[in-house]
User: Which sequence fits this backbone?
């Protein structure tokens, strides 16, 4: 088990590793470290004296507190070794694996790839289907909802959602669930699902994964993030979904009767269960794509959340920055000069707007489909294939796609002609896959 | 400074000179401060003078009649800026929603420029303004049509803007983006007229009531003398494993605050960003949740005591659906009730 766990731990910083170990040792935690007072006889015989077990939990806590205090004297690798080969030599629990992943996510904004999904009420379509007097119900609804407690997004309590989701999928998908609250800049509750290889059709006596590799397999993990009070859900189906399922299929040939566990299908089941778990009688939801996928969770929150940019990036980002004038009182007679930034005077600055600041959301991968591209550009750049009018797909990738395009534009009109540059190139749409 | 540098180094060692140059330095600093204060005062006086209508009319009258040489040259820009500033202030004070033209520089919108920009200012209880929210509308058709659709906005997602757009700005012809969700409304000719005022009113209503709810909670915290401890609206980060799932996450308050506000209330905070739910924690471990309507009245309340729901206190909190602002009185009654029962 060791190399896999050590690898996932070594992504974290030294402080984070120690904090994690301390959090595992809290009183209400169930993870049992290897201690002098709980080792068994055969374990004593196998002991290798490299990491002497602690007396009890309190003593172990003291050891890790000491690590915390000592600062730089202890290397991260030593701490990890102590965790993997010493105090948790029997293996980590699924909860511990989940908390490692979340510690990494908190440190590294771009740890996963998130897609934003929008919750749309299903009731609307039913109204059209009922369709005797179609305008009447919608008009009535408008009046009712003006002051009614129907805010246009579901009121989600993460615990209730989790229970509902579990009830929804448990016949088909067996999973370990972990709820995590991301603090201030995110204000999100994230559910991590570790899908166990056992299905209902293939129950096994123990649901404990036999090997650590199975427990950390990123193909089996998916995340569902529930932002506060907005009609969006962010999901991350991390890892390569296809290969994990196939690998499991190969092991089936050992003669044991097993149902094939296809991870992609499992995740699809979970995805389909999300809107059902959020729904209530008279209030049903469906998911639809918002064409936004990004690695940075912060960007997803900015673009599809209760933040400022909304859909206003690029030329409109002027309106998202904090202005001094807005802070002043309207009865203040004194004229205050606002520092006008020279950045916004230039044509490039006007088009791209602010690319720094708290509300700026960077995208790492943008896919564009341009229709009838060749026909339009035939006169400027003669192409051997100039006759057929095909669609072209363009994918930009990098740490910050639109900042790169801006840099390109700053190099002069030879690279990007600002007068002909379409609006999507400034990133003001706030989507990562679009049709131009 | 020039003075300190000018005397030759030999003289510097002389203590008398040293004292003197120090005194001079101090004087210079004083004079500078005075100049600054006076300039500030002059600015203030000038802008207050200029903002008064009488002075302005007289000045412009004077400028119109007198020959241009007689008027001081720097007066005109000052007058102009004061005028625009006061106009701007009046707009913010009086309307709260202002329309302005906006030129989008991108090539595909050149034919549709200028866009209709709408700016929504919301005043908070200290008399200051939040950052304004913006809404940009663009003509939906090519030419001739007056139909608008929302192009860009900076409005947080808790306002269901897309729904409002469908309700208030239905498009005559589909073909722009939202066609897959074409509503029943589109088929009916009489609902098809666009209601931009309705849209802005609705969005502003939502934003204002959001703001009001947040502020009422802040106000309550102040009146209950709860110290501003943590960030509002964020409960302490916690990990809940599926095994140890707490009931609605409410009973896991182990972080003991020593400070207790009035009526034995330890904490009043909004549960999430939109402040539609309020969480109250009493010092004796009772936990309450309130649901707030858009008008700011308490719709529903749940109080969970040590072992069960405390129905009579819930009834006090929702009796006659009081305003959230009057929560203090309710809490006082709740406190009296619970102390009477305790005896």
Assistant:
């Amino acid at each position: 088990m060791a190399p896999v766990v050590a690898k996932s731990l070594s992504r974290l910083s030294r402080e984070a590793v120690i904090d994690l170990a301390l959090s595992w040792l809290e009183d209400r935690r169930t993870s049992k470290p290897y201690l002098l007072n709980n080792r068994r006889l055969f374990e004593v015989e196998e002991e290798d004296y490299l990491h002497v077990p602690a007396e009890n939990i309190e003593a172990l806590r003291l050891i890790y507190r000491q690590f915390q205090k000592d600062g730089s004297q202890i290397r991260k690798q030593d701490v990890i070794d102590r965790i993997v080969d010493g105090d948790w030599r029997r293996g980590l629990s699924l909860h511990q694996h989940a908390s490692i992943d979340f510690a990494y996510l908190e440190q590294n904004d771009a740890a996963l790839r998130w897609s934003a999904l929008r919750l749309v009420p299903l009731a609307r379509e039913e109204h059209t289907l009922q369709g005797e007097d179609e305008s009447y119900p919608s008009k009535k609804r408008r009046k009712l909802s003006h002051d009614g407690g129907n805010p246009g997004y579901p009121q989600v309590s993460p615990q209730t959602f989790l229970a509902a989701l579990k009830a929804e999928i448990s016949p088909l998908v067996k999973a370990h669930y972990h709820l995590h609250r991301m603090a201030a800049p995110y204000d999100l509750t994230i559910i991590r699902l570790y899908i166990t290889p056992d299905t209902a059709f293939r129950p096994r006596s123990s649901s404990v994964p036999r090997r650590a590799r199975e427990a950390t397999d990123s193909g089996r993990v998916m995340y569902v993030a529930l932002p506060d009070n907005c009609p969006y859900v962010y999901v991350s189906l991390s890892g390569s979904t296809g290969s994990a399922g196939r690998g499991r299929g190969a092991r089936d040939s050992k003669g044991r009767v097993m149902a094939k566990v296809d991870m992609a299908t499992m995740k699809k089941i979970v995805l389909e269960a999300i809107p059902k778990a959020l729904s209530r009688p008279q209030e049903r939801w469906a998911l639809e794509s918002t064409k936004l996928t990004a690695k940075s969770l912060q960007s997803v929150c900015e673009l599809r959340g209760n933040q400022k940019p909304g859909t206003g990036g690029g030329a409109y980002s002027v309106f998202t920055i904090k202005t001094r004038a807005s802070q002043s009182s309207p009865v203040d007679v004194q004229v205050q000069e606002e520092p006008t930034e020279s950045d916004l005077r230039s044509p490039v600055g006007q088009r791209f707007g602010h690319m720094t600041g708290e509300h700026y959301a960077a995208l790492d991968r943008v896919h564009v489909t341009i229709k009838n591209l060749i026909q339009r550009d035939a006169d400027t750049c003669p192409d051997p294939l100039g006759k057929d009018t095909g669609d072209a797909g363009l994918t930009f990738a990098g740490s910050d796609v639109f900042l790169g395009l801006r840099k390109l534009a700053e190099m002069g009109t030879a690279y990007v002609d600002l007068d002909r540059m379409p609006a999507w190139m400034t990133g003001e749409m706030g989507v990562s896959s679009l049709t131009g | 400074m020039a003075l300190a540098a000018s005397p030759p180094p030999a003289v510097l060692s002389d203590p008398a000179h040293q004292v003197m140059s120090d005194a001079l330095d101090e004087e210079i600093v004083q004079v500078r401060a005075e100049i600054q204060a006076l300039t500030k005062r002059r600015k203030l006086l000038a802008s207050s003078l200029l903002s008064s209508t009488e002075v302005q009319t007289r000045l412009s009258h004077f400028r119109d009649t007198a020959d241009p040489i007689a008027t001081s040259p720097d007066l005109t820009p000052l007058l102009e800026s004061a005028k625009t500033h006061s106009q701007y202030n009046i707009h913010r004070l009086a309307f709260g929603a202002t329309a302005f033209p906006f030129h989008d520089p991108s090539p595909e919108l050149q034919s549709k420029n200028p866009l209709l920009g709408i700016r929504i200012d919301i005043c908070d209880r200290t008399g200051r303004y939040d950052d304004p929210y913006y809404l940009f509308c663009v003509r939906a058709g090519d030419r001739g049509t007056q139909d608008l659709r929302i192009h860009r906005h900076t409005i947080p997602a808790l306002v269901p803007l897309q729904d409002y757009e469908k309700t208030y700005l239905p498009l005559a012809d589909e073909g722009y983006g939202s066609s897959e969700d074409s509503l029943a409304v589109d088929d009916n000719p009489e609902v098809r007229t666009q209601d931009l005022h309705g849209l802005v009113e609705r969005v502003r209503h939502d934003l204002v009531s959001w703001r009001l709810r947040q502020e009422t909670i802040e106000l309550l915290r102040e009146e209950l003398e709860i110290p501003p401890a943590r960030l509002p609206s964020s409960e302490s980060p916690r990990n809940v494993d599926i095994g140890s799932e707490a009931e609605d996450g409410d009973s896991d308050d182990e972080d003991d605050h020593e400070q207790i506000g009035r009526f034995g209330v330890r904490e009043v905070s909004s549960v999430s960003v939109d402040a539609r739910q309020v969480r109250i924690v009493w010092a004796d471990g009772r936990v309450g949740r309130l649901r707030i309507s858009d008008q700011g009245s308490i719709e529903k309340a749940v109080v969970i005591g040590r072992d069960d729901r405390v129905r009579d206190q819930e009834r006090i909190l929702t009796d006659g659906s009081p305003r959230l602002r009057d929560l203090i009185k309710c809490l006082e009654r709740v406190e009296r009730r619970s102390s009477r029962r305790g005896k």
User: Anything to note?
Assistant: The CA atoms of residues 343 and 349 of chain A lie 6 Å apart. The radius of gyration of chain A is 27 Å.
